[in-house]
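Course assignment 3, question 2. Fill in each field.
Student: A.L.
Task: Predict the tertiary structure for the chain below.
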Amino acid sequence: MFDELDFTVRAAVHNLLLVLYNQGITQIHTGGLMRLLGIADEIARQYDDERIVMDNEVVRYIETFNLPKAPDQLIH
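Answer field:
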């Protein structure tokens, strides 16, 4: 089950991805995303070869994630 910090971090990442997507960016290096979120360069550098590809399915998932949930509903 998600704790509040986990949910907050996921929401921040999702919202940042939506902003980038809405600006026409459909791919981002994972390390670059981590740096935007304030993660130290030494750690983020390990993920520079990985990419997140944003398409309509990803956007739909993020938008669904951001919808209000019932208190007893689990997020997968």
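Instructor remarks: The beta strands are 27-29, 51-53. The radius of gyration is 13 Å.
Grade: pending
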